[in-house]
Amino acid sequence: DSDLSMRTLSTPSPALIFPPNSPGFQNGRGSSTSSSSVTGETVAMVHSPPPTRLTHPLIRLASKHQKEQANIDRLPDHSMIQIFSFLPTNQLCRCARVCRRWYNLAWDPRLWRTIRLTGETINVDRALKVLTRRLCQDTPNVCLMLETVIVSGWRGGPSKRTFTIAQCCPELRRLEVSGCYNISNEAVFDVVSLCPNLEHLDVSGCSKVTCISLTREASIKLSPLHGKQISIRYLDMTDCFVLEDEGLHTIAAHCTQLTHLYLRRCVRITDEGLRYLMIYCTSIKELSVSDCRFVSDFGMREIAKLESRLRYLSIAHCGRITDVGIRYIAKYCSKLRYLNARGCEGITDHGVEYLAKNCTKLKSLDIGKCPLVSDTGLEFLALNCFNLKRLSLKSCESITGQGLQIVAANCFDLQMLNVQDCEVSVDALRFVKRHCKRCIIEHTNPAFF
Asked: Is residue 319 domain-shared with residue 439, that is, in the same domain?
């Protein structure tokens, strides 16, 4: 009883997650997502914990059999907490309203390592305000357990709330705000400055983010803690359209520990930005510059400086990359496992040959929409890359059934083959199916099924 008396007597309502009239709020049931379209503002409310029993005068006294505990109530606390750990944020708030025991269990700090809020109808700003306030009550002004915050698909303005998160959650390690276009540079600066343990940052679709750096105050006051460096290892800036070479230079200079970097559709990035990147970030294992139309063979020469550390590379639809750039990658990045070169129309059989002979541990290759790649290139792949598991040849006009048969006869571990819009016979597809039992074939031949 003394332990219960120490706990706060308030809990956020599920209205933080769903408006009261949303489909997910009807009949006391709710789905694990919150993507329903509802008009009106979501209201944040605070409720007292449920009473231990119902006291309405119209309710009949339960029989002796009915007074017995339900099966789920017989479970010990640690089992209940394990069950609750699989629930999303909105469902966990609902569970807190069932009874006093569930209330105490639902607010166990171990269940609040992650907050996930998704959907356009959520009042994210208010939900984060109330949740962080509740989580900080046992340890005033600081939430030591919260490590992950995921917000996506909301069109409001959570930018002002990111400072609250950063200030209250110094142990934050992962922040995802994908699709929240109102996030600004200043909001990102606050988070990375106040959360020295932040390792995973996803700002994909945040079109206002042009740079990642420490605030001026943090650069002066926290230099012994940060060393003017940011500990981020995973950074996704997909669709950050206004990111330029100078911004990438600042990011690279501050985030020297990067191992995963995704710059898909950052259309203003050029080879110069990649040169800055390779000066500071020498530990990158995965890199995507797909749809960066200004990246050329010179950029590939810079990326090749990563040498054997590079395992994943996406250069899809980079039309300025040719066999020359592929030769740079193949020569120095011998441990490459994944390459996406779809739409790089300058790649020919010569580039595929050099790649196959030098990157023999290649497991996934996408050379779709490369019209100059033919059966000759496939033969080099088949004779050198025996561990190939995924191969996409979509819309490769020069590929025939003969090249597919050579691949199938040598790459027995093939699990996915895409030959959509390729002129290959049914017999060739059946040959692949016989030799690669686990292979899923994506095709456009109506005679093969």
From this structure: yes
